[in-house]
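User: Need the bound-state model for nicotinamide-adenine-dinucleotide:
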Amino acid sequence: MTGTVTDVIVIGAGPVGENVADRIVAGGLSAVIVESELVGGECSYWACMPTKALLRDAAALRAVRQLPGAAAAVTGRLDVDAVLARRDRFASNWNDEGQVAWLQQAGITLVRGHGRIIAPRTVEITGRDGTVSTITARHAVVVATGTSAALPPIPGLADAAPWTSREAVSVKKIPERLAIIGGGVVGTEMATAFSALGAAVTLIARDGVLPRVEPYAAEHVVASLESAGVRVLIGASPSEVTRDARGTVHVTLAGGGSIDADEVLVATGRRPNTGDLGLEYLGLAAGGWLSVDETLRVIGPDGTVPDGGWLYAAGDVNGRALLTHQGKYQARAAGDAIVARATGAPVEDFPWGRHVATADLRAVPQVIFTDPEIASAGLTLAGAVDAGLRVRSVEYDLGSVAGASLHADGYTGRAGIVINEDTNTIVGFTAVGPDVTELVHAATIAIAGEVPLDRLWHAVPAYPTISEVWLRLLETAAR
Ligand SMILES: Cc1cc2nc3c(=O)[nH]c(=O)nc-3n(C[C@H](O)[C@H](O)[C@H](O)COP(=O)(O)OP(=O)(O)OC[C@H]3O[C@@H](n4cnc5c(N)ncnc54)[C@H](O)[C@@H]3O)c2cc1C
Ligand SMILES: NC(=O)c1ccc[n+]([C@@H]2O[C@H](COP(=O)([O-])OP(=O)(O)OC[C@H]3O[C@@H](n4cnc5c(N)ncnc54)[C@H](O)[C@@H]3O)[C@@H](O)[C@H]2O)c1
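Assistant: Bound-state model below.
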């Protein structure tokens, strides 16, 4: 491989790297993708797909139990082994043959090993066997190296063999007692999953449960976790973690008290995989998030593009939105921008143009697969106020919507919109409740399309569906 020249080098073959490379090849250029672990990245083997497989059976069972006729047909308990076996299938048994075959048919060249930038547009690759090769790109290098779990500096934690999301997601035997540090997205989803799979779960939520979602949505999740038997410790902060000779983990809390568990899962956020990438060569900090312009070109601390602008960063590693779909959206913009610049075509770098990722700032959708689920798009009320917008919000009880009451007995949930008073458009949407996931795309379209409320009145939701909450929200807003 040494001395190989290609049009574009992509470092990291997660969902984002794969999509950048695909766009490059579709645009008529050649691409080499470098991967140090499994082609498919975190999402395929340790994140999106396997976590949702761990959660799905319990969600289906819960749905059945809210319908008396169907509930009568289901009398047993969750088959945990069957859930884990299905999870294994969704993680492709941690084998990337299928994804490698996809790269091949897409015309993308795969090089396995750890990539590091050593000169302009030049990447050195160290294989698992220690062999070193170099590749040079004619046009661009794209960093799509993702993130890893961040371990907070809690005394004793690193020596207590803590789980990160990887160990939790690939679990083979459900522990009797699981302590989770961190009440964010990973913490709450894993508390939901492990509690349903039979573990006694304690969730240590120092900064509150899901502090970045609308408070009413988080409240529904806390109530549901507690009714499922999860101990939710809001405001508790671990001061020390130890594992004794018998294997029991002890989490000591600042201010008194401790939790004993068989395993401790650390879910306190992510750090970018930029520690050993040769970034110092470009005057960028090793281990830091990569700042980018709107076409995903890396920018330095002074806001300018270094060295002629051949370095791009897409996906988790730029910290804009740590979500697969948003990273793939960036990949499409970055891949097309690289092709446009390489071929001399115009670059549409204005807001909502083809080569920018404007939606990252305004219209990011997310579904948190807790019980109940939270579906959101755009800004929360607090986020909109922080962004300096003149906004108001309205909320509606989802249980009062005919479609929801039909969907499940005792349906409990809530939805809300955040309205920009100056433009009369929706800038944020949140729904919490059973099976609200599919509501989110309508909200994303309304926000990204900046559809005025006056026009939204003409988007009539079908009766009797849960989507009728849209009409109820408009009626509430008009009062
Ligand atoms: C538990 C969990 C659940 C999640 N669930 C969801 C979900 O339901 N929906 C959702 O949208 N998002 C979810 N996410 C987030 C999602 O996993 C990420 O947003 C997504 O994986 C980011 O993709 P990426 O390609 O940027 O990075 P990654 O998927 O992390 O891929 C980066 C790749 O780069 C490789 N790499 C790193 N450094 C190098 C190097 N120097 N040389 C060569 N290769 C390198 C890595 O091995 C990896 O394969 C979840 C995250 C976690 C932790
Ligand atoms: N369904 C989904 O879309 C999904 C699922 C899982 C993960 N993800 C993505 O993965 C990313 C990472 O998730 P995450 O849950 O690790 O991060 P997060 O940022 O959502 O939550 C981390 C939580 O840990 C807490 N925390 C931080 N340091 C702590 C400490 N020392 N002690 C106690 N608590 C501490 C924080 O207050 C925060 O609430 C998220 O940003 C999310 O976008 C998405």
